[in-house]
C-alpha cells in the first residue's frame, strides 16, 4: 500500500498490462525489455519505463525499468526506496542508482542470465518525435560491452503499439486530464483582459490545473498577439491589447496521463471572420469524427477532412476556397502514435489502421484561401466500438473574454 496518496492504477490494471507486454515479448522472442531513463520532452521519453513500473513523476526524476519475460520487474532510480516504495504498489524491486542507471541495468541483466539472450531496448530506434532514439550513448555502450554475446534489438514500435490501445482505467485518467484542462481554459478566458501581461494569463491557466492535482512538468505552447501564426515555447512579457488572440496547446498531467486541448481566446472582441471560420471548422471536425471507426486509416481521415471542408466552404465571399489540414497525435503516458502534424510526419502513418481505444488530440486547421486567417480548435477523442467520442465537454466555438 502506498504511503503517500497519488492517483494510482489498480493491481488488475497491472496484471492486464504486464500480460499484454509479455505476450508481445514471447512473440518477438524478447527475453527482457530495458526501458532507459530519459526525462526529456515533458517526460515523453520515459513513457515506457513509467508505463511498465508505475514509478515516475516529477520533471527531474529519472526512472529506468528492467522488465523480464518472467520474474520480478526492477526499477533503477535515485532516492529509490524513499520515493518509489512509498508512492506505488506495482513494483517492490526498486534499486538505488546514484545516477548510474546503467550499473543497475547491467546488474539486473546479469541476474537474469541473458548473456546469450535477446535484449530489447526501448528508444534504441526511432520514435514518433525521436528519429535518433532516446537511449544514452554511454549507457548503451556499457550494455554492449557487458553482454558481447547477447542480441540487442529495438522495441520502440512494439511498445508504441501496446501503449496506443488504452484500458478503461487509462481512458478514465485521460478524461480527468481534460477536465483539468477545461478549468485552465476557463481561467485563461477570465484573465485575458486588455492590460494584462501575457505570462500572467498563462500563470492563471496553469494554476487552475495544478490546484486541482495536475502534475508538473506538462506540455504547453502559447502565443498572443493580433494575428500570430505559430505558437511559441512559452508566454512572453507583452501586454495584451483589445482584439488580441491567445493561441495555445494545453495539457494537464494526471499521474503522467496527458490529454490536450486547443482553444483560441480573443481579448474583448473577435473579428467576425473567425466567428464564421469556426462554423466551417465545426463541419470539418464533425466530418472527421463521423469517419473515425476502428480500422479506419489516416489516409481515409485526410480524405474525409478534404471532403468536409469542400462541403462546408461557400462558393463566394471571403471564405471561398478555404482549406483544411488534418492534425492529430496520440495521447496517453507519453508521445503515443500516430503523429500527424505535417506531411513528412504523416507519411509514416498514412496506411496505419486506427484501433478501438486509441486516444488522440484531434485539432484540424482551417484557413482562408489567402492564408491570412486560420483557426485551430481541438479536443482529445477516443475511438469506441461504434465510433468516436470526445473526452472533453466544452462548446466547440471561439471564446471571447469580458473587458
Topology summary:
Layout: H1 11-28, E1 32-35, H2 47-53, E2 63-68, E3 74-77, H3 80-84, E4 93-96, H4 101-111, E5 118-121, H5 137-146, E6 151-154, H6 156-164, H7 168-191, H8 198-210, E7 220-225, E8 245-254, E9 257-261, E10 265-266, H9 272-291, H10 298-312, E11 323-325, E12 328-330, E13 339-340, H11 343-346, E14 359-362, E15 365-367, E16 374-376, E17 379-384, E18 387-390, E19 399-400
Parallel strand pairs: 1-5, 3-4, 5-6, 10-19
Antiparallel strand pairs: 1-2, 2-3, 7-8, 8-9, 8-10, 11-15, 12-13, 12-14, 14-17, 15-16, 17-18
Helix pairs in contact: 4-5, 7-8, 9-10
Task: Report what the structure shows.
This protein is α+β, with helices and mostly antiparallel strands and about 400 residues long. It is about 35% helix and about 20% strand. A 6-stranded mixed beta sheet has the order 4-3-2-1-5-6, sandwiched between helices. Strands 7, 8, 9, 10 and 19 form a 5-stranded mixed beta sheet that branches. It has a 5-stranded antiparallel beta sheet with strand order 13-12-14-17-18, with helices on both faces. Helix 4 (about 100-110) runs parallel beside helix 5, helix 7 (about 170-190) packs antiparallel against helix 8 and helix 9 (about 270-290) crosses helix 10. It is globular, with a radius of gyration of 23 Å.
Amino acid at each position: 500500500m502506498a504511503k503517500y496518496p497519488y492517483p494510482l492504477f489498480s493491481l488488475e490494471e497491472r496484471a492486464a498490462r504486464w500480460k499484454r507486454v509479455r505476450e508481445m515479448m514471447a512473440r518477438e522472442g524478447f527475453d527482457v525489455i530495458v526501458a532507459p531513463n530519459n526525462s526529456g520532452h515533458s517526460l515523453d521519453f520515459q513513457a515506457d519505463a513509467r508505463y511498465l513500473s508505475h514509478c515516475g513523476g516529477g520533471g527531474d526524476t529519472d526512472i529506468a525499468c528492467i522488465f523480464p519475460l518472467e520474474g520480478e520487474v526492477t526499477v533503477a532510480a535515485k532516492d529509490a526506496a524513499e520515493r518509489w516504495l512509498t508512492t506505488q504498489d506495482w513494483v517492490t524491486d526498486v534499486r538505488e542508482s546514484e545516477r548510474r542507471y546503467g550499473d543497475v541495468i547491467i546488474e539486473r541483466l546479469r541476474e537474469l542470465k541473458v548473456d546469450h539472450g535477446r535484449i530489447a531496448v526501448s528508444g534504441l530506434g526511432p520514435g514518433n518525435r525521436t528519429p535518433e532514439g532516446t537511449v544514452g550513448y554511454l549507457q548503451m555502450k556499457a550494455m554492449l560491452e557487458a553482454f558481447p554475446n547477447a542480441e540487442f534489438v529495438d522495441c520502440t514500435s512494439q511498445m508504441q503499439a501496446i501503449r496506443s490501445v488504452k484500458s478503461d482505467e487509462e481512458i478514465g485518467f485521460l478524461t480527468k486530464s481534460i477536465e483539468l484542462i477545461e478549468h485552465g481554459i476557463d481561467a485563461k478566458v477570465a484573465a485575458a483582459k486588455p492590460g494584462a501581461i501575457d505570462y500572467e494569463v498563462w500563470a492563471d491557466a496553469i494554476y487552475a490545473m495544478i490546484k486541482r492535482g495536475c502534475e508538473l512538468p506538462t506540455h504547453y505552447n502559447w502565443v498572443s498577439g493580433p494575428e500570430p501564426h505559430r505558437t511559441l515555447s512559452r508566454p512572453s512579457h507583452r501586454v495584451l491589447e483589445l482584439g488580441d488572440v491567445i493561441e495555445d496547446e494545453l495539457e494537464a498531467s494526471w499521474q503522467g496521463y496527458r490529454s490536450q486541448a486547443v482553444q483560441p481566446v480573443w481579448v474583448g472582441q473577435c473579428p467576425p471572420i473567425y466567428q464564421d471560420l469556426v462554423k466551417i471548422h465545426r463541419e470539418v471536425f464533425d466530418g472527421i469524427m463521423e469517419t473515425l471507426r476502428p480500422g479506419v486509416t489516416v489516409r481515409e481521415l485526410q480524405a474525409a477532412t478534404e471532403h468536409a471542408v469542400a462541403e462546408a466552404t461557400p462558393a463566394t465571399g471571403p471564405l471561398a476556397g478555404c482549406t483544411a489540414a488534418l492534425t492529430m497525435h496520440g495521447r496517453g503516458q507519453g508521445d503515443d502514435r500516430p503523429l500527424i502534424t505535417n506531411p513528412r510526419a504523416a507519411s509514416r502513418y498514412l496506411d496505419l489502421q486506427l484501433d478501438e481505444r486509441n486516444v488522440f488530440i484531434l485539432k484540424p486547421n482551417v484557413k482562408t484561401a489567402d492564408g491570412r486567417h486560420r483557426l485551430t480548435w481541438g479536443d482529445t477523442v477516443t475511438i469506441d466500438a461504434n465510433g468516436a467520442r470526445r473526452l472533453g465537454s466544452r462548446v466547440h466555438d471561439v471564446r471571447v473574454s469580458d473587458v
